[in-house]
Amino acid sequence: MRNPRPTAQELRLRYEHDHYGADALEELLESQLGFFKQKAHKLKLTQGSRVVELGSYTGAFLQAAKECGWDATGVDVGKDTAEFCLAHGLKVIRAELEQSKIAPNSIDAFFIWNTFDQLAHPKGTLESIRQLLRPGGLLLIRAPNGDFESAALNARANSRWRESIMAAQALNNFLTFPYIAGYTPRSLSAMLSSAGFQVIGINGDVIAPLFGERSPALARSSEQRWKRLTLRICDRIAKDDRRLLHPWFEVMAVSHAVSHH
C-alpha cells in the first residue's frame, strides 16, 4: 500500500484533470482494442446484457462490448477520456460510481479492468457494485499481482537472470509501484467474499499491450516476445507448483442477493 495513502478527493482531482490529447488516446485505443475483443468474446453474456465498466479510459472494452451486442456503459471521472469515448459513440457517465445514478439491481455484469488498485475505498466500491448488480450478476476485476512482484524481487536478488526479470517487470508496469494498493489473488478473493460475492474463477495474465500499430515495429515485437516468455514461465509454475505468479490476474465472482432487512 502506498504510504501516505492519497485521499479520495486527491485521487478524483488527479484523474479528472489527466490530460492525454486525442492522438495519444487514439493510439491507446488501437493498441488495446484487440486485447479487449479477445476478453469480451470469452464471456458468456447474452445479447442485450446490461454491463458497466468502472474506469472506462479509452473505451476499448466498451467498444468490444458493443460489438458483442451488449448494452455497455462506462463510468469515469476523467474529462479527456469521457469526451473521447462519447466522440466515438460510446456511453459514458462522467462521475464517481456512487453518483452515477445507475438503478439498483439493474446490471448483469460489472467490469473493473485496470482501476481497482487505484480506488480510495475498494471495499465500499464492491458493496456499491453489489447493490447495482442483479442477484447472480457477474463481477470481473483485473489487478496487478503482488505475488508476482514479491517473486520477481526475490529472484532478482541473486540471479544471473536479473536483467530478464527486470524486463518482465518493466513490460508489466512493475519496475516502480504506481498503484495505490497491491493485491494478491488470496487477498482480493477474501475482500470479495466479505463484500457478498462468491469467487468462481481466477486466471493469470500479462498487462494489456503497451505498444500499438503506430509504435516502432521493434518495440511491438520485443514486447510480444517478452510477454509470451513471461506467460509460458508463469503457466508452468501454476501447473507444477499451483502458485499464480502471473504479473496480472483476473478474478470472476457472482453477487449474492442483497438483503434489505
CATH level-two architecture of the domain at 8-144 and 178-209 and 248-255: 3-Layer(aba) Sandwich
CATH superfamily of the domain at 8-144 and 178-209 and 248-255: Vaccinia Virus protein VP39
Order of helices and strands: HHEHEHEEHEHHHEHE
For the biggest β-sheet, the strand order reads: 3-2-1-4-5-7-6
Overall geometry comes to: globular
What kind of sheet is the major sheet? 7 strands, mixed
Q: What structural category do the secondary elements indicate?
A: alpha/beta
Distance between the termini: 35 Å
Report the mean per-residue pLDDT as an integer: 92
Low-confidence stretches: none
Number of helices: 9
**Percent of residues in beta strands:** 15-25%
Q: Can you count the beta strands?
A: 7
The helical percent reads: 40-55%
Query: In CATH terms, what is the fold-level topology of the domain at 8-144 and 178-209 and 248-255?
Result: Rossmann fold
Q: Rg, please?
A: 18 Å
CATH class of the domain at 8-144 and 178-209 and 248-255: Alpha Beta
Description:
The structure is a single chain. The protein has 261 residues and is an alpha/beta fold. The protein has a domain at 8-144 and 178-209 and 248-255: Rossmann fold (3-Layer(aba) Sandwich). It contains 9 helices and 7 strands; from the N terminus they run H-H-E-H-E-H-E-E-H-E-H-H-H-E-H-E. It has helices spanning 8-16, 22-42, 60-67, 79-87, 122-132, 146-157, 162-170, 185-194, 217-241, and strands spanning 50-54, 71-75, 91-93, 107-112, 133-144, 197-205, 248-255. Strands 3-2-1-4-5-7-6 form a 7-stranded mixed sheet, sandwiched between helices. Strand 2 (71-75), helix 4 (79-87) and strand 3 form a beta-alpha-beta unit. Helix 2 packs across helix 3 (60-67) and helix 6 (146-157) packs antiparallel against helix 7 (162-170). The two termini are 35 Å apart. The mean pLDDT is 92.
